[in-house]
Amino acid sequence: MKLTDKKRKNILDAAILEFREQGFPAARVNRIAELAEVSKRTLYKHFESKELLFQAITDILLDEIAAAPKLRYAPDEPLRDQLVAAVRDYVTHLTGDHYMGLNRLVMSELLRDQKLAQAFLTKAALQDGPISSLIGDAMTSGALRRADPGIATGQLLSMVKHFLVWPVFLTGAKPDLDADAVIGDCVQMFLAFYRTDDLTAETRPGPVGNP
Fold first, then answer.
1. Beta bridge partners of 144
2. Looking at CB atoms within 10 Å, which of 27, 69, 77, 106 has the fewest?
């Protein structure tokens, strides 16, 4: 890693720590520079303001999802199994300590600053996540009925997040639920709405709670 890149990373790491401890409004640039072991001049060479520094942190949050390998629909494998595996990996990533910490940090500031929140949502809308690409492929192949892949993905993930992500975000504790069963049920409900008539019986919904 180049020295310039290392300094930039150190500044971002220090900013994340300072924002977590003090909140964005009370965070001090002097303290961030001190934690990063750089001068204020060096800090401002990388980030001209505290606001731009925070925006860089929001980009990290979005980039982590965007960097995930795109998933492609495999017609020779049950679509249900593909969706369950993709959602399971997604939930594991979102509830990991690193991502969850960043998420709490960013969301607390977005609730305070509507302009920043709008900019964040605009960027997020442009992201084509791995599950969206999988669902889009399945729609193109005829395994799912045609619709907006982004909206369909949001519907599926909203169900899952309600049970497995938001409780962790709000309380810091994982819910006392069988995560695999929850994901399986949510995928079944999703397929019940979006499946096409030519899907095999293997992908058709079974009894609730049966993964």
1. 195
2. 69
What is the distance between the terminal CA atoms of the chain, rounded to a whole angstrom? 45
**Threshold 0.90, pTM exceeds:** no
Convert 159-173 into a string of H (helix), E (strand) and C (coil): HHHHHHCHHHHHHCC
Please name the residues in contact with 40: beta carbons below 8 A apart, sequence gap of 6 or more. 29, 30, 33
| 130 in Cβ contact with 154 (< 8 Å) | no
Please report the pLDDT score of residue 83 as a whole number.
97
What single DSSP character describes residue 28? -
56-71 residue pLDDT tens: 988 888 887 777 778 9
Confidence of residue 171 (pLDDT cuts 50, 70, 90): very high
pLDDT tens, 192-211?
999 996 544 444 444 444 44
If you ran DSSP here, which 8-state letter would residue 198 be given? T
Which amino acid type is present at position 124? Answer: A
Contact status, residue 29 vs residue 50, Cβ threshold 8 Å: yes
Q: Assess contact for 141 and 73: CB atoms under 8 A.
A: yes
- 167, 59, 190, 87 alpha-carbon torsion, rounded to 10°: -70
